[in-house]
């Protein structure tokens, strides 16, 4: 256990606390069991270490551990907690819980047995808590850590610090808001940089290796994280990578499951399942018609890459600007917890009442003519009027 303490102290001292994610302030840290789920690369470990450093800088009552540490090859989590508690320990920050066999059952037992122990844990977004053998879902308060919004990117890049802006405010007052913000920074310039390399917080570390890091993240998700999905065959990892590469060349598009099945050599049902697995892993977004039921056996209407940075990282050719625009808007809306589906007219139906068409600054209103509550999200536009809104402004939703 002493080695774990030394690692915890070292990591605590090394982490920077200048840039802190918006989610940090939304978490109620007073709950006894907090779960933070998210895709690899979004900064879950940093969030835990920042909490440790800011609130327990010299306190033996708090400890950070990663459950893929070699320590747990010969030691149980429960035994560690008992030892930690006897020495005055109160708060455990557990990283990568899905890497530990039986993690849900042991955390449940710790929670039920030791009322004076507080746990904050992180896990992969592919984990289905409700499938775990222990009923952890009703004991845990869950949060999801997504990639950076455009607003957060501006703050992390030391360009501009702003508060979030609600969707209704953007729709109703976008001209005044855009005028104010565009006086503080050049939105088009920085928005283009964000679409290229601003979604993952590690852009701060080294831009030259940013896309190499994304490729590594993708491979780790497919080869390591997806094995925690019930029903996923790890032997098909290469086929999933092949599927992802095909999607990257064509998104957004309406998938032909039969053609995809023939191309990568797996059954149509398996292709459909793997599309849903890739969505759980936050590598793609699937869009269905409003009111349609969603299951792993249902073919999606359209497929998008989960965020615009993936276009350059995965696609072999030049990233399509139209694809990046739509990928961005769908990503920001869903990360801000808005319901998005496929409308009869337009690109996105938001919260079942707002239609949004995406395009360049010259985009006309023809496609949404006669549609109620319809707006255009226009790229390369600094300030909009009436129902034509700058696309970049939707990056302030979270």
Automatic annotation (TrEMBL):
Molecular-function GO term, any one: ATP binding
Domain AAA+ ATPase, chain residue ranges per copy: 30-146
InterPro entries, per the entry: AAA+_ATPase, AAA_14, DUF4143, P-loop_NTPase, WH_DNA-bd_sf
UniProt keyword Ubl conjugation present: no
Keyword annotations: ATP-binding, DNA-binding, Nucleotide-binding
Protein name per its UniProtKB record: ATP-binding protein
Taxonomic lineage of the native organism: Bacteria, Pseudomonadati, Bacteroidota, Sphingobacteriia, Sphingobacteriales
């Amino acid at each position: 256990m002493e080695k774990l303490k030394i690692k915890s102290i070292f990591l605590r001292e090394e982490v920077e606390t200048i840039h802190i994610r918006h989610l940090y302030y939304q978490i109620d840290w007073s709950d006894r069991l907090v779960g933070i789920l998210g895709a690899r690369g979004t900064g879950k470990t940093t969030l835990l270490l920042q909490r440790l450093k800011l609130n327990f800088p010299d306190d033996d009552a708090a400890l950070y551990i990663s459950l893929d540490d070699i320590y747990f090859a010969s030691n149980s989590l429960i035994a560690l907690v008992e030892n930690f508690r006897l020495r005055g320990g109160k708060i455990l920050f557990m990283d990568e819980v899905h890497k530990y066999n039986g993690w849900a059952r042991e955390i449940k037992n710790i929670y039920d047995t030791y009322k004076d122990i507080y746990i904050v844990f992180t896990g992969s977004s592919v984990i289905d808590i409700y499938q775990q053998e222990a009923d952890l879902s009703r004991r845990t308060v869950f949060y999801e850590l997504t990639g950076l919004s455009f607003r957060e990117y501006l703050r992390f890049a030391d360009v501009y610090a702003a508060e979030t802006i609600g969707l209704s405010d953007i729709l109703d007052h976008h001209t005044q808001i855009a005028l104010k913000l565009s006086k503080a920074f050049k939105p088009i310039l920085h928005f283009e940089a964000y679409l290229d390399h601003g979604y993952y917080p590690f852009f701060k570390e080294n831009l030259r290796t940013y896309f190499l890091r994304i490729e590594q993240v993708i491979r780790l998700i497919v080869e390591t994280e997806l094995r925690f999905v019930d029903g996923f065959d790890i032997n098909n990892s290469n086929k999933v990578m092949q599927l992802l590469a095909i999607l990257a060349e064509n998104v957004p598009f309406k998938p032909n499951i039969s053609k995809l099945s023939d191309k990568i050599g797996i059954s149509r049902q398996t292709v459909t399942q793997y599309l849903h697995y890739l969505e759980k892993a936050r590598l793609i977004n699937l869009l269905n018609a409003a009111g349609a039921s969603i299951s792993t056996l249902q073919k999606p209407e359209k497929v998008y890459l989960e965020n615009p940075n993936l276009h350059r990282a995965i696609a072999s050719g030049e990233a399509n600007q139209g694809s990046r625009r739509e990928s961005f808007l769908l990503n920001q809306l869903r990360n801000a917890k808005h319901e998005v589906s496929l409308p009869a007219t337009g690109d996105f139906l938001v919260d079942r009442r707002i239609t949004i068409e995406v395009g360049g600054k010259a985009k006309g209103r023809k496609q949404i003519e006669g549609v109620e509550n319809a707006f255009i999200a226009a790229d390369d536009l600094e300030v909009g009027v009436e129902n034509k809104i700058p696309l970049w402004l939707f990056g302030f939703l979270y």
